[in-house]
Amino acid sequence: MEHTQRRPAGVARASSGLMDGLQRWLPKLVVAPTFLLVGIGIYGYMLWTGVLSFTNSSFLPSYEFVGLEQYAKLMESERWLVASWNLAIFGGLFIGICLLIGVVLAIFLDQRIRQEGAIRTIYLYPMALSMIVTGTVWRWILNPSLGLEKLMHDWGWTSFSFDWLVDSDFAIYTIVMAAVWQASGFVMALFLAGLRGVDSSIMRAARVDGASLPMIYWKIILPSLRPVFFSSVMVLAHIAIKSFDLVMAMTSGGPGYSTDLPAVFMYAHTFTRGQMGLGSASAMLMLGAILALLVPYLYSELREKRHD
Amino acid sequence: MTDVVRTGFRPSRIAIYGVLLLACLVYLIPLIIMLITSFKTPMDIRTGNLLALPTDWTVMGWTKAWSTACTGVQCEGVKGYFWNSFKMTVPAVLISTLLGAFNGYVLSKWKFKGSDLMFGMLLFGCFVPFQVVLLPMAATLGKLGLANTTTGLVLVHVIYGVAFTTLFFRNYYVAIPDALVKAARLDGAGFFTIFFRILLPLSTPIFMVSLIWQFTQIWNDFLFGVVFASGDSQPITVALNNLVNTSTGVKEYNVDMAAAMIAALPTLVVYIVAGKYFIRGLTAGSVKG
Amino acid sequence: MNHFKRHLTALAVSAALMPTAAVHAGEVEVLHWWTAGGEARAAAALKQMMEEQGHTWKDFAVAGGGGEAAMTVLKTRAVSGNPPAAAQIKGLDIREWAKLGFLTSLDSVAEAENWDQLIPPRISDVMKYEGEYVAVPVNVHRVNWLWVNPDVMENVGVEVPTTLDEFFEVADKLKAEGYIPLAHGGQPWQDATVFDAVALAELGPDDYRKAFVDHDMDVINSEKMEEVFAQFAKVMSYVDDDAAGRDWNTATGMVIRGEAAMQIMGDWAKGEFTAADLTPGEDYLCAPAPGTTGQFTFNVDSFAMFSLTEEDDIKAQKDLARTILEPEFQTLFNQNKGSIPVRTDMDMSDFDTCAQASMETFKSSADDGGLVPSFSHGLATTSYIQGQIFDVVTNFVNSNNPDPVKTTDQLAAAIKSAM
User: Fold this and answer.
1) In chain C, where are the structural domains located?
2) What tens digit of pLDDT does each residue of A201-230 get?
3) Distance from the CA of B32 to the CA of which of B177, B218, C153, C365 falls in 20 to 30 A?
4) In chain A, which residues fall in CATH 1.10.3720.10?
5) Phi, psi at C226, each rounded to 5°
6) Are C238 and C171 in contact (CB under 8 A)?
């Protein structure tokens, strides 16, 4: 509105100027509610959590500041180290394997396959399930006395043994398996969509030059799908960080606390153990790690695009 | 076409089909196990093996899960919770998608100073673990008088869903040539006119992506449901958790599996029926960033 | 016409007044995690009694994880200024909630109903904050029970063990015959429940109290504790390999079906036997956990009452508190749940032999000092210290080469850091 007033003009111009000013402000007005909601709901609350991490809040929030004590406690906690290490293993393997499976299946499926639609749906459907359902089913399948191991024994392969779920050194890998099962089809869909967008003349030209099919994919097509990698990593990282439900449904962090993830740790301390300060400190470290890993990536990817 | 025929008999083609079919099997087995288990009798489950077909097909598990299984003190099955989930999901999906569409439109076609920063902040918002926001959110909802109401729950889902929908729409609209918008502006078309006349007609695919994504996310949410819904408006995921944990001596896996299937059915149907639009939408937009 | 109109108005008015005037009904929203068979039936009984008094019961069940999910929900509800009328809160946590000013005093009910005479002081202490009742105890669980399938024992030709050494002997024989000696679920609280029993057997009640109630480092970081861990490891070696993540009632099911011979679990396990139509003393046996004869580790379920504003709801809340301690409910509830009444003046003749034995030990141990609060169920220590102990214990159980000496150090460090 200020703009209209500053403009020296006749009545007609003023009214159109009013419209003009409104037009100028409209975009900001439209995004304002989101900005407000997200500003409070994400950044405001993060700040609040940050404040709590410097207090000795136990049962419910209190504002008695103790400096960095909670962070020091966290660093000494063996359970926290296990949880952090688990997130690294889980996140790394989950994202890596999903990308690999997704790319391979997408390329295979792009070879003019009969019944492609049906196959695609089969790959994609696990994404429709909640992690609680996925966790429950996989817990059942991987349970040595109920699932796969029993099945193999029933079929006569009595030496078959698969007890990762109940082995504290391997249980984290069963979580990776279930998570990959759930999300890899989605990655496949993203890449398939990307491949469909690749100009087929590139392929033809390369073929004329005598390049082999794997070479074309490796050297030309995959590099051109960089934005797809970006989208995939975004979605997968999002799922990895939120795998709380999956862990809770499959192992509840067990055996012992061998499949603990930072989110589980934070939840347990904040809500069950009445250590809100410690829980908040773990949340802040978790956010810090996400920030440290993601922001450079986001920044480089988004910048790149602007130069295109 | 000759190309297809010629390549159809090469060993590499067979290998490709082999891999694809094997993958189908791996993806399908858990669903098959859930399905056949839900039709078995408890006796059958204990004696038979995981992949064996039921000796007596029975829908007892399904009817029990739907109408008589106990979820806590109440033994009315999950049917009430099923509708609760719809009441919460539909408005939350629609509102977050609409907001996302407008945000995407502004952040791609009406950039202003700080709009890129805002987009970056929204993106980061996708990665905040929800456990962190439970308590402050509860306090806020309490102050707003929305604690333990469906409205409050819808609001929570909108807040934490809008980051993703904005990302979808922004990336989709970025790919639409600016020239189109500029021409319309020269013709005197305003903010909303351009959106409704030019962008909206082109937006069906990305609307499908956003609707499907949001529907799946919100329908499947457990954490917000259990914390922010009151006893009688709890969504089905909470009921499923209560049901699976409500057991007497022998676990009735058939009822558990049937309940899990019921909880998963709407999202499964959405994926199976609308899955192709989903892929089309991804092809058309979001992957090109 | 006029007459008719007046009549109609009168009707309308009375109809409008009906809900409040006819019955003085309030609503009680009750947060609990009693969703397993016997527990759910017990909760349903309470619901029915409240409804008979004209109140509405709003069930707020949050299953899973021994109440972990329920605690999260409760905290967010409290923070949002909208707590339920009553919530299942236990042990020392009651004091924490009261300290924050969330709970309401029940002294008016307590005085009218003479609670101080009915409830043993050791338990009523837990229910009070600054001398006022803020929670109602529902029952008393004995945690140090051993549940036994007599048929399995008979097949192998062994007796129910009364000491840990006997237990090891019996378990070896059972194992040799292909039975799982000890049914167990590998969840932290279940690991701690067994540890609880072994610690009581090895330390005795006095040192148990010193370690887990007073956190006396001379006991916690001692050779005695190393011995506890060594014996505990030995007990756990008789558990099958697939125990990880198993629910307690699934483990009880293994005893019922004769796959496993014994289970160390609190008396809520009885609800599972009852649900399977088994009779105590015949189809299954209950005995004190090995080495803890005459001692009683107690776990008390209780409802803490939150401050409310609506007059009718407060009335309903008070009625709930009163109903919980009435003999009728105490009998019905505890028969379903497997526990014993919290009132010591009750006639136990309607209860089964396990409950009668439990009541006897409860009374005798209260006199001779064998009555100790269970640390594994939050009666002895704050949830933080409890959690720290859980971490150490469960890590020990799941370690590939458990080291009692190192673990004792870890336990001491963990408790120290939480104090």
Assistant:
1) 23-140+299-354, 145-298+368-418
2) 887 888 888 878 888 888 888 888 887 888
3) B218
4) 73-307
5) -60, -40
6) yes
- How much is the pTM? 0.83
Residues of A within 8 A of C395 (CB-CB) are 78, 256-257
* Domains parsed from chain B with CATH numbers: 2-58 (no CATH), 79-288 (1.10.3720.10)
Query: C145-298+368-418 is classed in which CATH architecture?
Result: 3-Layer(aba) Sandwich (3.40)
Superfamily of chain region C23-140+299-354: Periplasmic binding protein-like II (3.40.190.10)
Q: Residue C65 is nearest to which of A165, A252, A269, comparing CB atoms?
A: A252
- Mutation target among C99, C250, C391 for the A interface, most CBs of A within 10 A: C391
The span from the CA of A65 to the CA of C149, in Å, is: 55
Contacts of A79 in chain C (CB under 8 A): 391
Asked if A79 lies within 8 A of C391 by C-beta distance, the reply is yes
Task: Please provide the CATH number assigned to the domain covering A73-307.
Answer: 1.10.3720.10
What residues contact residue C262 under an 8 Å CB cut-off, 6+ apart? C146, C147, C148, C149, C171, C181, C182, C183, C255
Query: Residues near A157 by Cβ (< 8 Å), separated by ≥ 6?
Result: none
Which residues, 6 or more positions from C316, have their beta carbon under 8 angstroms from its beta carbon? C25, C26, C27, C28, C50, C55, C56, C85
Measured between CB atoms, which of B135, B190, B270 is closest to A128?
Answer: B270
ipTM entry: 0.84
- The two domains C23-140+299-354 and C145-298+368-418 share their CATH topology (first three levels equal): yes
Point out the least confidently predicted range of A9-23, A248-262, C189-203, C231-245: A9-23
Can you tell me the mean pLDDT for C35-42?
73
Nearest C-alpha neighbor of C144 from the set C290, C255, C280? C290
- Quote the distance between the C-alpha of residue B33 and its chain's center: 22
